[in-house]
Amino acid sequence: MKVSRQEYDKLPFAVRTGVLIMWGTQLVSYSNAGLFRQLYSFNGFFAEMCFDERQERLDNIYTFADIRQLDPYISNLDWKTLLV
Q1: Distance CA 27, CA 84 (A)
Q2: Which of the chain's termini has less CB crowding within 10 Å, N or C?
Q3: CA-CA distance, 60 to 55, in Å (whole number)?
Q4: Around 10, how many Cα atoms within 13 Å sit in the side-chain half-sphere?
Q5: 32 and 75 in contact (C-beta within 8 Å)?
Q6: Contacts of 40 (CB under 8 A, 6+ apart)
Q7: Model pTM?
Q8: Whole-angstrom distance between the N-terminal and C-terminal Cα of the chain?
Q9: How far apart are CA 14 and CA 42, in angstroms?
Q10: Which is nearest to 63 in space by CA: 36, 32, 30, 41?
């Protein structure tokens, strides 16, 4: 599925969720302060699915193209597992 970030952001929440699961590439995930986050790459931008662990529901999906917003993921990587 080919869609721009702007078009993706206008899709209904359920459709955005399904699109990421079906056509996005899951890169990494981490948990912090009761939120479980999964990072996806999709059509030249990144999307972050935020799952509220306390309420057990998908809370939001954020999109971004600026790689500086990848810092939380990079700092949570276990580099030892990547070097084995």
Answers
A1: 18
A2: C
A3: 13
A4: 5
A5: no
A6: 20, 24, 25, 26, 27, 46, 47, 48, 49
A7: 0.79
A8: 34
A9: 16
A10: 41
Q: Which residue has the tokens 């078009």?
A: 7
Alpha-carbon distances of 71 from 8, 13, 59, rounded to whole Å: 23, 25, 21
- Phi, psi dihedrals of residue 21, rounded to the nearest 5°: -65, -40
Dist CA 80 CA 36 (whole Å) = 22
Res 71: pLDDT:
72
How open is the CA angle 55-58-60, to the nearest 5 degrees? 120
| Concatenated DSSP letters of 31-48 | EETTEEEEEEEETTEEEE
Structure tokens at 2: 């080919």
Nearest to 38 by CA among 83, 4, 72, 75: 72
